[in-house]
């Protein structure tokens, strides 16, 4: 939302002493400027309200909310802080998040006023949210590392089982729920796959509940990540939370139709950034 890339200053001849602290100070100044601009009054409306929610009155939330990201099913999500969590949270802290009957480890993306600004922009208020229970402990971190290790060990087993049942599936990612009550396999396929026998075999092997989830090629690119032709991280992996419908009409409106061969991303779909220039008013 506001991070400015200052990594170009980290060269041997350019980086001054104490660069890390200088970068942190720059980011704090940038945050303050953007927050002030977002909350400026425009004819009686804040900038956030002027973006589409001018007629909506948002009461103040009576709960503390953070934004966090998780490699599991939660993805990027707002989370309510549990009353038992008395420690002050900062960006990049790792917390244990409870959602319905599952526990996951998540990284804190944003805290404070920026979270409230984002929620006002999205028109969110009062909805049910996952709860950040506490900061992770050393035991939690050991469990998390064990899960990551077992996910790697499960990969060749899954591929072997797919060949055994002669299924047309491409494995994208494996995720152990933090409490190990479920093991998720994310895959892509050209069509529907009858994986009932595969799921039974995997459940017998791993002694836990198995969920196989088919995802699209754009979701695959988001999970794997990488660098685009622009030299930067994929937009879907960096900051996009949902995918818009991208059509050739968007390229035509930007006079790019003559270079269609260059407009496909690594997922072989039209690049998401084509929608950035679209008129959303």
Task: Explain the overall architecture.
It is built from eight helices and ten strands. It is an alpha+beta fold and 281 residues long. The protein folds into four domains: 7-38; 52-136, no CATH class; 141-215, GMP Synthetase, Chain A, domain 3, CATH 3.30.300; 220-277, no CATH class. The strands form three sheets. Strands 3-4-7-5-6 form a five-stranded mixed β-barrel. Strands 8-9-10 form a three-stranded mixed β-sheet, sandwiched between helices. A hairpin with a 5-residue loop joins strand 8 (170-176) and strand 9 (182-188). The radius of gyration is 22 Å and the shape is flat. It starts with 18 loop residues before the first helix and ends in a 28-residue tail after the last helix. 14% of the residues are buried. Mean pLDDT is 77; it is low at 6-15 and 41-55.
Q: Descriptors for this entry?
A:
281 residues, 4 domains, 5-stranded mixed barrel, 3-stranded mixed beta sheet, 32% helix, 20% strand
Report how far apart the termini are. Answer: 20 Å
Q: Helical content, roughly?
A: 25-40%
* Helix-strand category: alpha+beta
DSSP helix count?
8
The strand count comes to 10
What coarse outline follows from CA principal-axis ratios? flat
Topology at a glance:
Blueprint: H1 19-38, E1 41-42, E2 45-46, H2 47-50, E3 65-69, E4 76-81, E5 94-99, E6 102-110, H3 113-122, E7 131-135, H4 138-164, E8 170-176, E9 182-188, H5 196-206, E10 209-214, H6 217-224, H7 235-238, H8 248-253
Parallel strand pairs: 4-7, 9-10
Antiparallel strand pairs: 1-2, 3-4, 3-6, 5-6, 5-7, 8-9
